[in-house]
Design a protein that fits this description.
Number of domains: 2
Shape: flat
Structural class: mainly alpha
Number of helices: 11
Distance between the termini: 86 Å
Strand order of the largest sheet: 1-2
Strand content: under 5%
Order of helices and strands: HHHHHHHHHHEEH
Keywords: Membrane, Transmembrane, Transmembrane helix
Length: 344
């Protein structure tokens, strides 16, 4: 008797958990924004038509729900595999679109004084959607042997923290510059200007060290001190620590731009007590923690640098030894030829 043949079944999408999480956070986002639009909360956002802001969560919810249904429903999954469509490129472009979509969504929903501050669920769900979308794209890249975040940041232990510092300062710079338009007091305006200067300087420093890791700024004269694990890196890291400590003191104090996340000052945006909600608070803390991370990981990076330098020197010495041995053998052969000629 012939053994019964088992039907081949399409495996489930390995990223279904991330898709489900993105689906849930998108649902939370557009539901809470709808509630905020129905409430009279002019304190949290000023001017403009915010009715269209619901589209970010609604569109993301619909797309991720469709992807989950295509993967969960057995009849559809056996006949149509979304993750294998066009060799996986269809899924890749879809996820990339979600990342770009939520990048725009975070800018719109969490800009200074925006509707994202009407409730913290609006604010955190927008950022959560962006981070989950990036995680899905990163996992898709790993499945298709495309550059992943780990491959991008594994050069040294300090590189992930330099990258985090760079993006945190970029958010801090954009948010502080955007908050200037809503500043109603000199104190808030001064803290905005200070945040812009602090973010610009820290951004340039972090960008420099990110480039130095990838040897974009490498040269023979400065190779020994410009790379990771050197005293040059730790000195600049300590300097950034000091700058950001002063930033935390000046920006998160009472009445300053980052004294709260959602802002303060009652329902009148024109009030002298009004401080708009912004990303400055979390961006400043994220930048400070990243800078501290660079300092903590510097010793480990220095040890790895010495280990790699030692391996390189050993290889160079081995190559030099092989070349010297070849030269000696050639000299011995030439001497043998000369002796044979002289004997004849």
């Amino acid at each position: 008797m012939e053994a019964p043949q088992q039907e081949s079944r399409q495996p489930y999408n390995a990223k279904w958990r991330q898709y489900l999480l993105l689906n849930i956070t998108s649902l939370i986002n557009f539901v809470t924004i709808e509630e905020a639009l129905q409430a009279d909360l002019p304190h949290y956002f000023s001017g403009g038509n915010h009715d269209s802001t619901i589209v970010f969560g609604a569109a993301s919810f619909a797309v991720t729900l469709l992807i989950l249904l295509l993967d969960v429903v057995p009849v559809i999954r056996e006949k149509f595999s979304f993750r294998n469509l066009a060799d996986g490129k269809a899924e890749g472009f879809t996820v990339l679109g979600l990342v770009l979509w939520w990048s725009a969504g975070v800018i719109v929903l969490t800009r200074a004084g925006a509707i994202g501050y009407a409730a913290l669920n609006n604010y955190f769900s927008a950022w959560a959607c962006l981070f989950v979308a990036i995680a899905v794209l990163d996992k898709w890249g790993g499945e298709h042997d495309i550059l992943t975040l780990r491959q991008l940041t594994r050069i040294s232990p300090t590189l992930p923290y330099w990258w985090t510092l760079f993006w945190s300062c970029l958010v801090l710079l954009g948010s502080a510059a955007d908050t200037i338009r809503l500043a109603t007091t000199d104190y808030v305006l001064e803290s905005c200007n200070f945040a812009v200067g602090l973010a610009t300087l820290s951004l340039l420093i972090s960008f420099f060290f990110v480039l130095s890791h990838y040897e974009f700024l490498d040269c023979a004269a400065c190779r020994s001190w410009m790379t990771y694990g050197g005293w040059f890196e730790i000195c600049w890291s300590v300097l950034v620590n000091i700058l950001l400590i002063s930033g935390l003191h000046d920006l998160t104090g009472a009445g300053a731009i980052a004294s709260t996340v959602s802002g303060s000052g009652g329902k009148d945006p024109t009030s002298e007590d009004y401080v708009p909600g912004s990303n400055v608070y979390f961006a400043t803390w994220a930048a400070f923690c990243s800078s501290i991370g660079v300092s903590i990981k510097w010793k480990e990076a220095r040890a790895i640098k010495f280990a790699r330098t030692g391996d390189t020197n050993v290889e160079e010495q081995a190559d030099d030894g092989e070349v010297a041995a070849d030269v000696m053998r050639m000299e011995e052969k030439s001497l043998d030829v000369e002796e044979a000629a002289a004997t004849e």
